[in-house]
Specification:
The complex is a heterodimer of chains A (about 280) and B (about 160). By secondary structure, chain A is an alpha/beta fold. Helices cover about 30% and strands about 10% of the residues of chain A. Chain A folds into two domains: about 130 residues, no CATH class; about 120 residues, no CATH class. Chain A has nine helices and five strands. In chain A, α5 crosses α7. Chain A is globular, with a radius of gyration of 20 Å. With about 160 residues, chain B is α/β, with parallel strands linked by helices. Chain B has one domain: Rossmann fold. In chain B, strands 2-1-3-4 form a four-stranded parallel beta sheet, sandwiched between helices. In chain B, β3, α4 and β4 form a beta-alpha-beta unit. In chain B, α2 packs across α5. Chain B starts with a helix and ends with a helix. Classes of the chains: A alpha/beta (about 280), B alpha/beta (about 160). The interface between A and B is large, with 49 and 45 residues.
């Protein structure tokens, strides 16, 4: 998957026609094989742009920053990114009229060693759902499958799961990088900060990590699109996707196969209901 | 013999934690103003006895209950949480409890996934006329949580410096 040529062509055209002020894309870091997001504002920077299977980041996150606010933006979205963009549009966080969206028919991104990521093999919507121009060949419809890590962990006993997650919460340093990298976390004030407001409590205890990560993942339940920006941002390499995928499995299995951001105008699983939702767990 | 068994109550999630003698669980009850809170009031005025382990918090509707409340309760003092509201279709705000029902299921499954016993978090529908049912529900929840032992996971005071 290498769409560098197409992306540069489209960006050149957009800047030449004066349709956009800034373009959000990827460039090489300059010292290794990896890429970083870049916001360019003119024709002279277009040769910097690149897109291949190392373009991992979700660029919808950059729509909430000052660089792009109130400007006309060109944006590259893969399948998962487009779903988060769809949610941002539904939640009135972004104005569609000032966006030019380049949708990618994504073949899956790679990790450091060049292997295709596990969650891209399981991806249900590889093609962008919101776009002005599509790049690549669209895929056939795919079946939802339960994440392999979640399935493996769910088969273990209660005490084993507790031990595993205790090490996870213990490693967390409460830097909140997961929250900042999440395109759907845009609240000006976050409830999990109440825990850190009193500094003497020690902001990075296991207890406060439990509180923060659990609250965060439950506030994203039914909205998380599994773009894995949080996991990439995490300096401790925590398996944050386990929490999100567990929620996604519950929601997909019990609420008529709901997946976040797929349908236009769908705010998420917790913003609607069905008379026949399961209630056998309620006394 | 029975006394010794009672004294050696261990936490289900963390078997190395033994309950101190005479341990009583703390249960946070989050009740909806229009049905369950009125129901608990009826239980009291009808002079029906129910366990005193429950600490009641009144909320306008079960859909007011953010999953955050449950996490906060478990993190601070509670050994278990009970959320109770109107029966489906009886909600004062027409559809509030339908939304709440979805959140409860996801919260319960996630907490169970990370290692909490599923009985730590319980839900019930109790109407304003169901005083005896409320007493039964509280008795059952208290009984369940007594069997599970104290909750020691992620308690705030265990980590304070």
């Amino acid at each position: 998957m290498d769409y560098t040529k197409e992306i540069r062509e489209i960006a050149t055209k957009l800047f030449a026609e004066g349709k956009i002020d800034v373009f959000v894309g990827y460039r090489m870091t300059g010292f290794d094989e990896n890429q970083v997001p870049v916001i360019i504002s003119g024709l002279e920077d277009v040769p910097m742009l690149i897109f291949n299977d190392r373009s991992v980041f979700n660029l919808a996150n950059y729509l909430k920053q000052e660089h792009t606010r109130k400007k006309r933006v060109g944006l590259i979205v893969k399948g998962c990114d487009s779903r988060s963009l769809n949610l941002l549009l539904t939640e009135n966080q972004v104005n569609r009229e000032r966006l030019f969206v380049i949708g990618i028919a994504c073949e899956g991104i790679c990790d450091q060693e060049g292997n295709k990521m596990q969650h891209c093999k399981e991806c249900v919507f590889p093609d962008a759902v919101v776009y002005d121009q599509m790049v690549g060949t669209p895929h056939d419809a795919r079946q939802y499958q339960v994440n392999a890590d979640v399935r493996e962990l769910a088969s273990k006993s209660l005490v084993e799961r507790r031990e595993y997650f205790e090490t996870v919460f213990e490693s967390c340093i409460r830097c909140n990088a997961c929250r900042h990298s999440c395109p759907l976390c845009y609240c000006a004030k976050c409830v999990i900060d109440q825990e850190t407001s009193t500094l003497y409590h020690g902001s990075n205890t296991t207890s406060s990590a439990f509180h923060a990560l659990m609250t965060w993942s439950l506030h994203l339940a039914g909205r998380c699109v599994d773009c894995r920006n949080c996991e990439r941002a995490c300096p401790m390499g925590l398996p944050l996707h386990l929490l999100h995928k567990q929620n996604e499995n519950t929601i997909y299995g019990n609420f008529q196969g709901h997946l976040a951001g797929v349908v236009d105008g769908d705010r998420g699983a917790f913003y609607k209901y069905n008379m026949n939702d399961p209630d056998d767990f309620i006394m | 013999m029975e006394e010794i068994v009672k004294d050696q109550l261990v936490s289900v999630e963390k078997p190395e934690i033994v309950a101190p003698p005479g341990w009583e669980p703390v249960i946070v009850g989050i009740l909806c103003n229009w049905c369950s809170y009125a129901g608990s009031d009826l239980t009291g005025t009808s002079r029906i006895q129910y366990p005193h382990n429950i600490r009641i918090i009144r909320v306008p509707c079960t859909s007011r209950v953010d999953p955050w409340f449950l996490i906060k309760a478990l993190q601070t003092t509670a050994d278990g949480v009970l959320v109770s509201g109107c029966h489906p279709g009886d909600c004062h705000y027409i559809t509030g409890n339908y939304y709440a029902r979805r959140r409860f299921l996801v919260t319960k499954k996630l907490l169970n996934f990370i290692g909490f016993h599923e009985n730590r978090i319980q839900f019930s529908w109790v109407s304003a006329a169901e005083g005896p049912k409320f007493a039964k529900v509280v008795a059952k929840v208290t009984d369940d949580i007594k069997k599970l032992g104290p909750l020691h996971l992620y308690k705030k005071e265990n980590f304070e410096k």
